[in-house]
Amino acid sequence: MSNYHIKHLEEYYQVYRKSVRNPEAFWEEIAEEHFVWRKKWDTVLSWDFKKPEVKWFEGAKLNITENCLDRHLPTRGDKTAILFEPNDPTEEAQHITYRQLHERVCRMANVLKENGINRGDRVCIYLPMVPELAVSVLACARIGAIHSVVFAGFSANALSTRINDSDCKMVITSDGSYRGAKTIDLKGIVDNALEDCPGVDTVLVAKRINSEIHMKEGRDKWLQPLLDAAYADFVAEIMDAEDPLFILYTSGSTGKPKGMVHTSAGYMVYTAYTFKNVFQYREEDVYWCTADIGWITGHSYIVYGPLANGATTVMFEGVPSYPDFGRFWEVVEKHKVNQFYTAPTAIRALAKENLDFVEKYDLSSLKVLGSVGEPINEEAWHWYNNNIGKKHSPIVDTWWQTETGGIMITPIPYVTPTTPTYATLPFIGIQPALMDENAQEIKGNQVDGRLCIKFPWPSMARTIWGNHDRYRDTYFSAYENKYFTGDGALRDAVGYYRITGRVDDVIIVSGHNLGTAPIEDSINEHPAVAESAIVGFPHDVKGNALYGYVILKEVGETRDRENLKKEINQQITEQIGPIAKLDKIQFVPGLPKTRSGKIMRRILRKIASKDTANLGDTSTLLNPEVVKEIMDNSL
Ligand code: 6R9
């Protein structure tokens, strides 16, 4: 029996050593013992980081939904698979058993097929956090279609870009969504987006808020009647190990979003194995990850990882502040949640509120607390530890990325002693490396550098949809034979890792990755704007907020500055989404640039965070005089 469930530190080190000494043998054993296959693999791993090309379990045949659903039916048919907690606390929660989920996924699979979706086709899912979202994801997987979930907070413009990039034929959406006290007209956003998407011929619409919406003849169909009429069984399509399972877009530092492609077998094995260990999941536990399924955290640790383990996974439609700031804790008490996984930005927001919101509730069911999305600052860590975990639930600070598919550096609760702000040790099978300025690996401890991974792991993204060159250039060209994460990290005296943040132009606002380029592009489209640069600056709730430096076209532009600021933010909201709005906008005469014309964001970042004591050498700039001017007028 392999070490599927690690229980103490010695065992971690022993299994870790085994996993890096002979990765193929290690992962083969895990795959063999804990999953169902229609056919076993011919080769466990083949890889070449130069091409780059990585294949796990080649030759194997499977369907991930047979692992997430069918195989549980004999033993867990009546166990709750998805526990749906609605936005409105007075609306009843839904306990969807494995048998019911299986049936719903099968019906949906039939609906997709009947509407012309076949193996390999791309389906865009733009839904709020309602059960139909998980059902749609799994139904795509069941028929071998590739799902592309787009977070339902994105604008029409962001949606159409993503639909077109991967040529989606269908969109699954809802009439609208609830978000706290507000409703959002999702279908209206889809209608706008589809004006630019000639490839979409069908839109399936789930009913959620019962709003009056326009249904386009011949294109739009209400989902529920189709589901009711559909056959309740569907034989899963047999997929190859390396067939794409899904595309998920993540912001890049330049250009358009990157459609990261994840494949079936390796992704399944790694997300399931990490889920079991990182949350120490036991059969009777109720697990809750507060992320949205529109992000990788939701894909891997609301849907696939938990379901592959036969777990009960909570799906929460609402927001932490509705009807009040006690909502998370109310839900923990109500469903006796054992593992709770959230983001530092949520913790910081809740930590600002009165402790009564926490103390009103019985949180004694909690055994493990998780954090993901950005570095968790010390203050938030302690608040989480003291008030939510009552100092006895370990915090797992899990570092990973859309690209990595699963958790990479993390404590294992009750196994790895934790230290605030440290993601601690590499997970089983993960081989990190820190690199210096000369692209050499820095060995030993008490060092810091750029974080790379030097050996493949099963759930790594295989390519960027439609642009393999960009995949190579972004992740495999900075350091030879290594995957470059884009993050900086330090390794302390005992070998623990602490992630220090992005070293590229991605800014993380409230746990969402925002590339500077698309936001700047959007600002620059404003008729009065000549050029702009945005940087992040520390914000006590969002982690980072956005500071925009904007050059107006006409020096003597007389229009009201406050109005211009509003218009710029309005433009960003429409094109990207409200998440990308700027907290501060400063109109400047110029931007500090290198002689090759690259904006020196380093300087702008320092000014935005009021850290101007040491701006470094500005003499090599093309226009050093502009720096003082910007500083004198900074906000
Ligand atoms: C899962 C997810 C990835 C980027 C990553 C890093 C930051 C995520 C972190 C963390 C410090 C953690 N990040 N978890 N930084 N500590 N525990 O968030 O994926 O949205 O692709 O973001 O988020 O900078 O490179 P994604």
UniProtKB/TrEMBL annotation:
<dbReference type="InterPro" id="IPR011904">
    <property type="entry name" value="Ac_CoA_lig"/>
</dbReference>
<keyword id="KW-0067">ATP-binding</keyword>
<dbReference type="GO" id="GO:0003987">
    <property type="term" value="F:acetate-CoA ligase activity"/>
</dbReference>
<keyword id="KW-0007">Acetylation</keyword>
<dbReference type="GO" id="GO:0019427">
    <property type="term" value="P:acetyl-CoA biosynthetic process from acetate"/>
</dbReference>
<dbReference type="InterPro" id="IPR045851">
    <property type="entry name" value="AMP-bd_C_sf"/>
</dbReference>
<comment type="similarity">
    <text>Belongs to the ATP-dependent AMP-binding enzyme family.</text>
</comment>
<dbReference type="InterPro" id="IPR042099">
    <property type="entry name" value="ANL_N_sf"/>
</dbReference>
<dbReference type="InterPro" id="IPR000873">
    <property type="entry name" value="AMP-dep_synth/lig_dom"/>
</dbReference>
<dbReference type="GO" id="GO:0016208">
    <property type="term" value="F:AMP binding"/>
</dbReference>
<dbReference type="Pfam" id="PF16177">
    <property type="entry name" value="ACAS_N"/>
</dbReference>
<dbReference type="Pfam" id="PF13193">
    <property type="entry name" value="AMP-binding_C"/>
</dbReference>
<dbReference type="InterPro" id="IPR032387">
    <property type="entry name" value="ACAS_N"/>
</dbReference>
<protein>
    <recommendedName>
        <fullName>Acetate--CoA ligase</fullName>
        <ecNumber>6.2.1.1</ecNumber>
    </recommendedName>
</protein>
<feature type="domain" description="AMP-binding enzyme C-terminal">
    <location>
        <begin position="519"/>
        <end position="598"/>
    </location>
</feature>
<dbReference type="InterPro" id="IPR025110">
    <property type="entry name" value="AMP-bd_C"/>
</dbReference>
<dbReference type="Pfam" id="PF00501">
    <property type="entry name" value="AMP-binding"/>
</dbReference>
<keyword id="KW-0547">Nucleotide-binding</keyword>
<dbReference type="GO" id="GO:0005524">
    <property type="term" value="F:ATP binding"/>
</dbReference>
<feature type="domain" description="Acetyl-coenzyme A synthetase N-terminal">
    <location>
        <begin position="12"/>
        <end position="68"/>
    </location>
</feature>
<dbReference type="InterPro" id="IPR020845">
    <property type="entry name" value="AMP-binding_CS"/>
</dbReference>
<keyword id="KW-0436">Ligase</keyword>
<feature type="domain" description="AMP-dependent synthetase/ligase">
    <location>
        <begin position="71"/>
        <end position="462"/>
    </location>
</feature>
